[in-house]
Predict the structure.
Amino acid sequence: MTRRARTLTDQMEHLIETALAPGRFVSYNATSSFVSELGTVEEQLAKRVSTDPLEAVALYETFLAGCYEKAEEVDDSSGSFGQFVDELHCGWIKARQAAAADREQTAARLLKWIEDDPYGFCCDLEKDAAKVLDNAGLAAFVKQVRERFDAAAAATPVPGESSGHAPDYARRRWGESLRTLYLAQQDAEAYLALAEQTGLTAHDCHALATMLLAQRQAEEALSWVERGIELTKKAPHSSMAGHDLAKLRRDLLTKLGRGNEALEAAWAEYRGHPSTYSYDELMKYVPKEEHAAWHEKAIETARGTDLHSRSS
């Protein structure tokens, strides 16, 4: 490393240390400005990725280590500090990729952070990592997560083992991670195989439908939506999935030239739950020339109902 490069590195390390302010407790009210200052430093660091990616990798690791050290000195009730650390991990991934670093090692390091996560910084890391990993990096990540899933699926429970380390827990945990990653890869075949292995849910049907829609297979997507809606009738805790499936069904019907069916479905939902939201949804499927008539029809149906008070 040249003297100039060493000086630049020293300057960045000083900025990181100053922003983290080791030894100073950050109260809840001060967290927002604290995280904002950290973000300003990270912006400068991100600029180094294109000019000296190897240096950027080392600095990101220094920054991450400092954040972990700082964790117990921050009242992060808002979660903003944790979100910032999650974004730092993603910056580290980008720097590693710019430096053409080994993808398998990158995946292994990510999983080490996920598995040893005392402050909950990495609870959703696979979701955000999937957005920034290149194809080779994502494939390496999927491979290593799959290995953990398969190991958990083949393991037998040990008497007295804590629930957090039990095979069933690990199988569910890595299964959900694989769902996230297969969805990011748009690998409908692998996703379906996993869902059938672990138990198909309404959320799975929605995910499969969105992947098929992206592949311009609207008819097949609709069949998965219909299947998911049937599953929601048997699962009392899948209301959110049911809502998403119903909306996707209307959109698919419209795309397939079955706008009247989409309108009928939106009208049925509005009549069952008159609200500002369901009114707006209804009007999306009403032909422009019929807006006035449908508006009156909707108001008549909701007469006596305060739409603003029933916005959900």
